[in-house]
Structure formats: structure tokens, C-alpha cells
Amino acid sequence: MLMDMLKGFLVGICASAPIGPIAILVVQKSLSKGHKSGFVSGLGASVVDTLYASIAIFALAFAQKFIDDHRNMILIIGGAVLVIVGLSMAFSDPFRKMRADQEPGVSPKDFGQAVAMGLSNPMAIFVMFTLFAFFGLADDAPHNWSVAPIILSVSIGSVTYWFSISWLLSRFRGNFRMRTILWISRITGAIVVIIGIALLGQGLFNVIFRGLPIV
User: Fold this and answer.
1) What b/e string do you get for 129-148 counting C-beta neighbours within 10 Å, with b at 16 or more?
2) Buried b / exposed e across 56-95, counting CB within 10 Å, b at 16+?
3) Predicted confidence band at 26 (pLDDT cuts at 50, 70, 90)?
4) Which residues sit opposite 102 in a β-bridge?
5) Considering the domain boundaries, does residue 169 fall inside one?
6) CB 160 within 8 Å of CB 12
7) pLDDT digits over 78-132, tens only?
8) How far apart are CA 192 and CA 195, in angstroms?
9) Three-state SS for 172?
10) Which residues are CB-neighbours of 42 under 8 A, at least 6 positions away?
11) To 10 degrees, the CA torsion angle through 61, 53, 169, 28?
């Protein structure tokens, strides 16, 4: 079990590592508001990773059928969520609550944005299952609550990754001028919006021009 827990820890790190909307969000929060804000955003991502790890072990077949049956709805809703979050990132003022002598406070919005982004991409379940298979956990793990230590290890791996990344990024905040950080916020928000529009456009194209059902 100890070896399986170590593998689960590595799965959590590997699942968090790819550059995507959540990573962009954590970069933006860490540079504009500091380590605490970036880490709280990372915690939101870790919650979603833990959920997807549980689904990958207990209900992959059901999740796959649900995604296949509701692909266009997922694309449209997920794309819309990313567009809204991206616009919020692009047009918010990251320095509104900053004080010269103290680090900005942490907002529940930091956590909520990351959770919304993670849930907008249920395809990540298959990434999680692929990682389980790669590390040899998919076939050996029993489908009952005895796998709880493995799921916990995935969560710890994800939390560790986001803590490290947000801490490292926050160390470089002093090397950026405020105007530079503001533009980073604008650009990263725009990237998230573009990703959201692409997903939303694909879903609408399938429904309007290909005549595929939305549900």
C-alpha cells in the first residue's frame, strides 16, 4: 500500500502539471496577489483532481457514457464558464486591494474560479485514468473504500504541486512592475477566453450545423 500511495502522490503531481486554464489562473493569482491567493486557487484545482481521481477508480464506465451522451452540452457549458472566468481575469484590477505594506487578502473567489474551471473540463477524468494505468494503479486497485489512501495521496500530490508553484511564482513578484503584472493578468485572461470560445464554438457548431443533439 505504501508503494501505491507513492504512485498516487506522483499521479497528483502529473495531473496538475500540464499547462491549461487552471495553471494560467494560478500564475495570474500568484503574480498579482501573492502566494496565498495562488495557493488557494491551486486548492480549488486539487479538490477537482480528487473528485476526478475518485470517479476514475469507482465510476469510469458511467462517467465515459455520460460524457459521450452529453458531449455537446459539456462543450457549451464548459466553454461558457471559461469565457466568464477569463473575462473576469482580464478585466479585474489585481491591485484594487493591494497595500504597500501588506500582502493582499485571499478571496473565496480565487478558490471558486479554480473549481469552476476544473469542473468545466470533465475530460480530465480520462487523463486521471490514463495516469492510474501508467503507474499500474488502474488494474490492481479494488473498487471499494480501501483505495481511500491512494485517493488521499493523489490529493496531497496535487496540493504539494500547487503550493510549490504558487510559492515560486510569488517570489518573483518583486521583479515585475505593476504594469507588467497587469498586462500578464490581461493576457492570461484573454488566453482562457480564447480556449472557452473554442470549446463553446465547437459545441454550437455540432448542434447548429451538424444537427447533433445538445443532450
Assistant:
1) bebbeebebbeebeeeeebe
2) bbbebeebeeeeeeebbebbbbbbbbbbbbbeebbeeebe
3) confident
4) 99
5) yes
6) yes
7) 889 888 888 887 887 655 544 443 445 677 888 998 999 888 877 788 788 878 8
8) 5
9) coil
10) 16, 26, 114, 158, 159, 161, 162, 163, 165, 166
11) 50
Is residue 147 in a domain?
yes
- Close Cβ partners of 198 (under 8 Å, ≥ 6 residues apart): 79
Q: Cell 504512485 sits at which residue?
A: 7
Reduced to 3 states (helix: H, G, I; strand: E, B; else coil), residue 121 is: coil
Residue 82 covered by a domain: no
pTM for the model stands at: 0.73
Rounded to whole angstroms, the Cα distance separating 4 from 7 reads 5
Cell 493578468 sits on residue: 185
- Distance, in Å, from the CA atom of 199 to the CA atom of 214, rounded to the nearest integer, reads 14
* Cβ–Cβ under 8 Å, residues 12 and 161: yes
The domain tally of the chain equals 1
pLDDT in tens, 104-114: 567 788 899 89
Structural domain includes residue 192: no
Instruction: Provide the domain limits for residue 115.
Output: 2-70+93-177
Grid cell listed for 108:
473565496
Q: What is the pLDDT of residue 138?
A: 59
